Amino acid sequence: MVEQVRKLLDKRLKTPEELEKLRQSIISDKDTSRILISVCGGTGCRASGAEAVVDAFAEEIERLELQAKIEFKETGCHGFCERGPVVLIGPKKIFYQHVQPEDVPEIVAETVLQGKPIQRLLYTDPATNEEITYETDVPFYKRQTRLILGANGEIDPTDIEQYIAAGGYSALSKALFHMTPEKIISEVTDSGLRGRGGGGFPTGRKWQSCLKAKGDIKYVLCNADEGDPGAYQDRSILEGNPHSVIEGMIIGAYAIGSNNGYIYVRNEYPLAVERTIIALEQAMDYGFLGENILGSGFNFTITINKGGGAFVCGESSALIASLEGKIGEPKAKYTHMSEKGLWDKPSLLNNVKTWANVPLIVNKGTDWYSKIGTKGSKGTMIFSLVGKINNSGLVEVPMGITLREMIYDIGGGIPGGKKFKAVQTGGPSGGCIPEEYLDTPVDFDELTKLGSMMGSGGMIVMDEDNCMVDVARYFIEFLKGESCGKCVPCREGLAKMSEILNRISHGQGKPEDIEVMTDLGEILNNGALCALGRSAANPVLSTIKYFKDEYLAHINDKKCPAGVCRELIEYSIDPDKCTGCGACVRACSTNAISGEKKEPHVINQGMCIKCGACYDTCKFDAVIKG
Amino acid sequence: MDTGLDFTTIQTILESNAEKVEKLIESYISKKEQLISLLQDVQAEFNYIPQDVIIRISQRLEIPLSQVFSVATFFQAFSLKPRGRHTITVCLGTACHIKGGQRLVDKLGRDYDLKPGETTEDMRFSLETANCLGCCALGPVVVIDGKYESKVTPDKLDKILKKYE
Ligand SMILES: Cc1cc2nc3c(=O)[nH]c(=O)nc-3n(C[C@H](O)[C@H](O)[C@H](O)COP(=O)(O)O)c2cc1C
Ligand code: FES
Fold first, then answer.
1. Chain B residues touching residue A271 (CB < 8 angstroms)
2. Contact at 8 Å (CB) between A458 and A424?
3. Element (H, E) at A131
4. In a domain, B92, yes or no
5. Which of A236, A514, B52, B159 is the least buried, fewest Cβ under 10 Å from its Cβ?
6. Residue B80 placed within a domain
7. Start-to-end CA span in chain A (Å)
């Protein structure tokens, strides 16, 4: 009773022993006979209707008064977003996909109460046509090592006690009471952890320079700007397990001697912001943030800051400018931010995933951690495996797995029997890797050797219907728009490249274009102010290197082999296949299609704007693109 | 600046909100460095950043007008023009691009006379594009007034938009 009153008045834990006591009491209070239903409440599953499923479960459990029998929770992202809403049931984790509110009463009656799986909601392996019952047997999950993402599917991110029950904040307690700052840093160094934000800089070394930097005020920063289009793992961690990042930051702050931290999150991530704010408040209430953390005498607070939606703000100096309330323009790095960062004070910036690795390393030790991965890249990496791929979502794998294993074993290959063309990694500054290199082990150094990079883990698979000139043009347009315009090579170089690529995709390419772009690429690599400009030519250079034929087809033959570049294609109707159903006529917004009912139709080329609506609509494959 | 609203309408919106604006700015008085957050709050309140408010922020927080203006124009999240009743955001991130995101923008231009950064004449829709909405496995992604729609085709977009008046 006294204990309960104390808990109500002040939840702040004052010693590491109190933390352990709380952990034990949460675990022993838990009724383990209850069957667990966990619904993914990440942004992906919510887009597919997870909120209604959550409500339906809550109602059904109340209606049948099953609260004592069922433990029900909404968790963070499970990773298999494409199959959402995803629901897991029971200790063996029966895996249901595409669950709708209508399915809920049946799930409760059949699966939860009687243990019978419902066939229609199970995942079917496209390779074997076999239905799979348990999450651990689904090929998408089977090959993964989910050290960081695993807890996402198990804890409710809005309840700190669930994180604590799962061992949360024990690494912090260990660091504060059993390790010196130097020891923590040497552990991080020896683990071989490298920054997950793109650059792959050795994390321990960065911490060491911040520790040594002079000054009483130091800052710890978390980069959650996640500007790489096609990558969303940082979002998923902040939405699903924000405390893992917060715990990492507190340990980092203690190691370098900082009392203030910032999390810089992009504005496009409202749910991540919301859950991080809740987590920060709870961490404060429980005494993991604020003054005298766990009675150690160490003080630390974290402020959350929303970005304004500019890709370049993920770059360290631009991020700092933006935190200071200025526009996000990068600066030349004459001094290192470990000496002069935010407000000119020593600052330690790491990516969300890097921070989330820290508690693991502290808890499990360097020996354990450094056994995972390759010689130069330790641990796991989280990729967002997206694009033209059957099993699309977030996957966490040990460094060193091959691209082929990722794409075929985990990703289940290319949909619709199409042919693989390239995989793009490393975000806008990365490159496109062709089929012949699919057996390359994925780590920081190997990807760089191929002219691409790890970046923040985007892995976008492209098939025969994607045009490499269009992809290069897309990235250059993107980077041109995101270039802050401060330095000439980047501002002018990208404008010129964009002009050339647009010409090529309009069928007005010239033979010398390829060489001009290669030269421009070199100038950018050497002469731009920040890493955005210095790597901006990668998408062009890598596509020229591996897909020169496609450029030549555009330039010399005025053809787009993939049928993407609009100026170079024509739609027509195959009279043998056309049934005259008229679907295309209704889809065409320029009235370019005509024909008698039940007779083959024709497209008036003069009126066709090549939007492709007829091609998409036709059920008989009668519309030809070429 | 063509805002699509006549001058008196804007005046009335601002006057009736003058107190709110003052209060909002007041809460940032000692937090000059959080200019971006303040602008986000203003944007959330009005759905855009009225010019008067920019001037007011500059005066009250003693930040040069040029700086407030440069921040307000630098970031994609801010609009200096009033927005329509519903904001459509089409993702043009890589994953969505290769699955046809651009075709959705083309469609809106063609059938709704709506281009990125603009608002329909009847103030029904505003169109924004984004570099990635963090739902890449479900592309092409469109967000309407905060609601995510996945695997959107031009056809499906028509049906979705019917729900918004
Ligand atoms: C143009 C550009 C954009 C970047 N965007 C991000 C980003 O979105 N997230 C991130 O963590 N790092 C990004 N970085 C890398 C950061 O500058 C920095 O290296 C990183 O946050 C350091 O953390 P880490 O060592 O944990 O990787 C970007 C770099 C450049 C040049
Ligand atoms: S690329 Fe569109 S949501 Fe990420």
1. none
2. yes
3. strand A131-132
4. yes
5. B159
6. no
7. 78
On whether the CB atoms of residues A317 and A225 are closer than 8 A, the answer is no
A482 lines ligand 1 (CB under 6 A): no
Q: Distance between terminal CA atoms of chain B?
A: 26
Ligand 1 pocket member A338 (CB < 6 A): no
Does one domain contain both B51 and B114? no
Please state the rounded mean pLDDT for residues A70-75.
94
Q: pLDDT tens-digit profile of A91-147? A: 899 999 999 999 999 999 999 999 999 999 999 988 788 999 999 999 999 999 999
- Are A325 and B154 an interchain contact pair (Cβ–Cβ within 8 Å)? no
Inform me whether the C-beta atom of residue B156 falls under 8 Å from chain A C-beta atoms: no
In a domain, B23, yes or no: yes
User: How far does CA B20 lie from the centroid of its chain?
Assistant: 20
Q: For residue B9, how many other CB atoms are within 10 A of its CB? A: 12
Q: Cα A435–A439–A441 angle (5° rounding)?
A: 125
If you average pLDDT over residues A88-92, what whole number do you get? 92
At residue A312, does pLDDT exceed 90?
no
The answer to whether A471 contacts B98, with C-beta atoms less than 8 Å apart, is: yes
Residue to mutate among A424, A460, A571, A619, with most B CBs inside 10 A, is A460
Beta pairing, strands A393-398 & A380-387: antiparallel
Q: Does B97 contact A at CB distance below 8 Å?
A: yes
Count of beta carbons in the 10 Å neighbourhood of residue B161: 18
| Helix-helix angle A548-555:A488-505, to 10 degrees | 60
Interatomic CA distance for residues B18 and B25, integer angstroms: 11
Span A481-508, average pLDDT: 93
CB-CB contact of B116 with B105 (8 Å)? yes
pLDDT mean over A516-539: 92
User: Where is the domain boundary, B74, B102, B131?
Assistant: B74
Ligand nearest to the backbone CA of B140: 2
How far is residue A166's CA from residue A174's CA, in Å, rounded to a whole number?
16
Rounded to the nearest angstrom, the distance between the alpha carbon of A351 and the centre of ligand 1 is 7
H-helix segments, A506-530: 513-527
**pLDDT confidence bin for B1, thresholds 50/70/90:** very low
Q: Which residue has the tokens 């997950």?
A: A196
Given the DSSP bridges, would you call strands A380-387 and A458-463 parallel, antiparallel or unpaired? parallel
Q: Determine the distance from the C-alpha atom of residue A310 to the mean position of all C-alpha atoms in its chain, rounded to a whole number.
A: 17
Strand, coil or helix: what is B149?
strand
Would you say residue A7 has pLDDT above 60?
A: no
Q: Name the closest ligand to CA A236.
A: 2
Q: List the structure tokens of B139.
A: 């592309």
Q: What is the best residue among A315, A336, A480, A490 to mutate for testing ligand 1's pocket, by most ligand atoms within 8 Å of CB?
A: A315
- Name the residue range of residue B150's domain: 86-162
Task: Tell me the mean pLDDT in the region B107-122.
Answer: 92
Q: Is the pLDDT of residue A25 over 50?
A: yes
Say whether A89 sits in a helix, a strand or coil.
strand
pLDDT at A127: 77
E strand segments, A260-335 = 260-265, 301-306
- For chain B, what is the domain count? 2
User: Which domains are present in chain A?
Assistant: 31-142 (3.40.30.10), 166-370 (3.40.50.11540), 380-463 (3.10.20.600), 468-556 (1.20.1440.230), 570-625 (3.30.70.20)
> Among residues B80, B92, B115, B163, which one has the least CA distance to residue A311?
B92
Q: Which two tokens stand for residue A56?
A: 């339906």
CA distances from A169 to A4, A162, A253, A356 (A): 22, 11, 14, 12
Are residues B109 and B53 part of one domain? no
CA-proximal residue: ligand 1, atom 24 (nearest): A195
Give the CATH number, domain containing residue B148.
3.40.30.10
Asked if B77 lies within 8 A of A305 by C-beta distance, the reply is no
Query: Do the Cβ atoms of B71 and A308 come within 8 Å?
Result: yes
Tell me: do B64 and B107 sit in the same domain. Answer: no
